[in-house]
Amino acid sequence: MSTYEPACKKRLLDTGQLVINKPESENLQECLQSSINRLHLKIEDCYPQKCLCGVSVEDLETYIQLNQTKLPLNTDICDKFSDSSSNSSYDSCLLYLNFLAWIGQAFHDQLLGGEVCSRIQSTIQFLVEQDGRIANLLNLLKINEQNLQYSVMQAVTSLLPLCHCGVDLALPASEVVLKKIIGDIIGGHQQSSNSLLESLAPGEEAGLDGLDFGFEEVVSRPLVSSNTDLDYKSWMLSILAGFVNHGGRQREDSSDTGNASCNLVPLEEEMLCQEMQVKCLVIRAMDPIWPQFTGCLLTVLSSNSNSLSSEIFLSEGFKVWRCLISVRANLSFVESRVFTTDLPSCLPQLSSTTAPSVWRSVLDTVSECLCYGTTLGLQSIPPQEPCNLAHAIIRLVRFNSFLSLVPHKSSVGFGGSAAGNCEDPSSLPNLTHGQQDQYDKGLVQKMVLIVLKCVALTTREARVESSSGESDSSASSRESISSGGSDMIIIERTMSGMYKVLDAWIKEILPVLPHQSLQESLLHLLQEQDDVLIEGLLCLLDTHMALYIPGKKEPEPGLLDTNPTRGFLTLLNLISRDSSVLLDFLVSNETCFLLYLLRYLKFVVKDWAGFVSSCDSNYSDAIQILIDLKESIARLLSKSLFPYNIGPVFRLLEKVETFHLNQKDC
Asked: In terms of CB atoms within 10 Å, which end of the chain has fewer, N or C?
């Protein structure tokens, strides 16, 4: 009998022999990996449609369970897992984390629209209802591999809010994860007796019932400030910031599924995005440790460490702080004074050697607290805490040379650099030729806007106090009226001193012509961002109106001139004298132009002669733009297309037109 066998048969036998000789555990791992890869390819095809109806429930649950079994759960495995070279487990882990981030974000986007994919909904329930599934992901942050750490942060940030959003009853998993995150951030510091719950309005504390975070049992120990420790805490801070700020998108911006055959399930109102419930949870969790949290930031900030780990930790920490005091966060149930009391203590810790990224984070947080265009500028009586912050900044600027510490030359961050030796100097008429220095324009803009907010808030506060004395007609108030007038004189001198310091600093660090007025320099500096430009104009307008009431002699035009009409003319030049741009500002909700225009038109109507005099040769152009704006508004009103009640502005524009016609007759 011949021993010859076909080659193909030999190959099959050889292959089988190799499989038989392999260890059983290795064969099992290959089978698991093969199953995971097959399921992932099937799921990945559904990403563009944001729908999982094409994948069975069994396949989805199997995919999740297989990947969960392959995640490293202890430090020893984590150390081996960090070697990502030719490591299939590492690649699978990244793909799985990407899936978790995608499904969490897709589900939340659909929640904002009121309808969700039924298969995505059932998968989310399977993910978040299992105890410890989200908490176990945090162990991966201990692996010193940035791609993996970033993927974990994205996955946890996407899934954690879904313990409250899209479910009938809140799941306890978020409390466990939040307790671990905050406990790791503060490093076990002893709790303070101060309570944030005192700031809740009556009845709002009911949303926090039954939540016990157990920080009372944490034992005090020193803050660990090693780079590795700070890196780990930075990732935790990123997750916490994303958790607080998860519901920032508007419902009309949510994206729909691209699959016509998707089985969409409508949700009831109580199962939609639960922003308030999530923020109540964070407030309750931050209550016992808020002084320790701010203390951690101040400790690292005062150390003047320039390490990358310190920069990231401070940037993420102040981002959490900013999210908690943000007006856009809609924290109506808690007064911002609880979160802003420690802000003034951060500013003296900044120095010329502090990293520019940290400066930006601190200034962004301060600017959010001084939310002049959205909140403080609308209030008849400014709150005391933002006013105290403004006073602290004014003292630092006037008496401690705070502006000279701003590292405007040591950073050229994204979107924040400008050079005097630009390729087209003619496009920047306020820049001198041959200037070689570079400066961080974004950082300078932030500092300038904060100074303008502080000046406007302080003058408004002084004017309110002075007006309250003048409104009292009793004989005993005459002395207070006199003291109120002297206080305004002191305020006027102080604010003039602030403007002098600001003007000198701008002309020292920026390529600005010496004869250019402060107002013109400020508006050219702020012109790149519409919201910043309009808020700066509003601050200048309110400051001028508070210091120089109609009938009072105004300062002579000069370098420190802040006449609102000349500021308005500069704005018209910046928008190429196009009335349609003003209409866009009015229709959009991205700027405070409505408030600015309303107050400016009131200023014009009260002092028409001053308006005509300030316009000088530009009077015809300025009045024609205002009339064109009125006619554009009238056309929209005739068709009921204006998005809100523009009546007060429209009536003021009609008065301006009447004054103009009378001016022509004269």
From this structure: N
